[in-house]
Design brief:
This protein is of the alpha+beta class. The protein folds into two domains: 134 residues, no CATH class; 69 residues, Ubiquitin-like (UB roll), CATH 3.10.20. The chain has eleven helices and five strands, in the order ααααααααααββαβββ. Strands 2-1-5-3-4 form a five-stranded mixed beta sheet. A hairpin with a 4-residue loop joins strand 1 and strand 2. Helix 3 packs antiparallel against helix 8, helix 5 crosses helix 6 and helix 5 packs antiparallel against helix 7. The protein starts with a helix and ends in a 5-residue tail after the last strand.
Length: 268
């Protein structure tokens, strides 16, 4: 396998315009990290986690695996992406390892895929677990809040490309991506007159809504806001960790789809 460290600098030269980045390495780091993984991945993790042996121990430890596997968001990931919990854990482990390799504690170099971001949000909400993770890694892992400006959207797209390039260089495959339903399934949905979806609030309460498969986002936000006694612009809707934004329609909405409703927090 080509030296991933050289691939990393080549990728950054292309994406970030020949800026120079320096990765800190521990002088006491072991030449090889002893992990129970396939040889190809062993080599990748040797490079990625050479500066953080304690982090490697945690990422491959029982606490990391059990905590992530038991999260509700993991059920969503395994259903949507048709994978096992172990594969979901591995996906998040790979992302965190890439963050450590690039010293990206302030989230300025790499951005996650939707699946990674869903698990990242879940990890952050388990404050004890997230604190343990950061302590083991020896750094703060800042999650950049979403901003809707064109500059930030473009910057995130660049960070995502960088992450995907590094991911493929180290793991020799693409990150998990959601596969759209096949054409024949989509045609069946078009024939449906209504679907029932569930909207869950942060306090755990849920409301069921019956809407047309191609109902607009604005229609759903108005319906949810009316039910909750608030204004449409005071709520945000998420699905599998990804925020829905204003558009004529996003359809088709799916039967049994689970949507999360989060209040809009206004700055001062």
């Amino acid at each position: 396998m080509a030296d991933p460290k050289n691939l990393w600098y080549d990728i950054l030269d292309i994406i970030f315009g020949c800026r120079t980045y320096h990765r800190s390495t521990s002088q006491n780091a072991a030449d090889s990290i002893c992990l129970d993984v396939a040889p190809r991945r062993q080599e990748a993790y040797d490079h990625l986690l050479s500066s953080s042996p304690n982090g490697a121990d945690f990422l491959f430890g029982e606490r990391f695996t059990k905590c992530l596997s038991s999260m509700n968001e993991m059920n969503q990931i395994t259903t949507l992406y048709k994978i096992t919990p172990a594969r979901g854990v591995e996906e998040f482990r790979r992302f965190i390892s890439l963050k450590i390799f690039t010293s990206d504690s302030d989230a300025r170099i790499l951005s996650p895929t939707s699946a990674m971001d869903t698990l990242w949000h879940a990890a952050i909400l388990d404050t004890y677990f997230y604190a343990e993770l950061q302590t083991a890694l020896g750094c703060l892992l800042h999650h950049r809040p979403f901003k809707s400006s064109k500059e930030e959207i473009d910057a995130r797209a660049t960070r995502l490309r960088a992450m995907k390039s590094l991911y493929k260089a180290f793991f020799l495959e693409e990150p998990l991506e959601y596969e759209e339903p096949k054409a024949e399934l989509a045609s069946v949905k078009l024939k449906q007159t209504t679907v029932s979806i569930k909207v869950v609030s942060l306090n755990g309460t849920s409301e069921n809504f019956t809407i047309q498969p191609w109902a607009s986002l604005e229609f759903l936000k108005k319906a949810v806001a009316t039910r909750l006694g608030t204004e449409p612009d005071r709520i945000r809707l998420f699905y599998i960790g990804r925020q829905f934004f204003s558009s004529p329609n996003l359809g088709p909405w799916e039967e049994g789809q689970l949507i999360h409703c989060v209040p809009e927090i206004r700055g001062c």
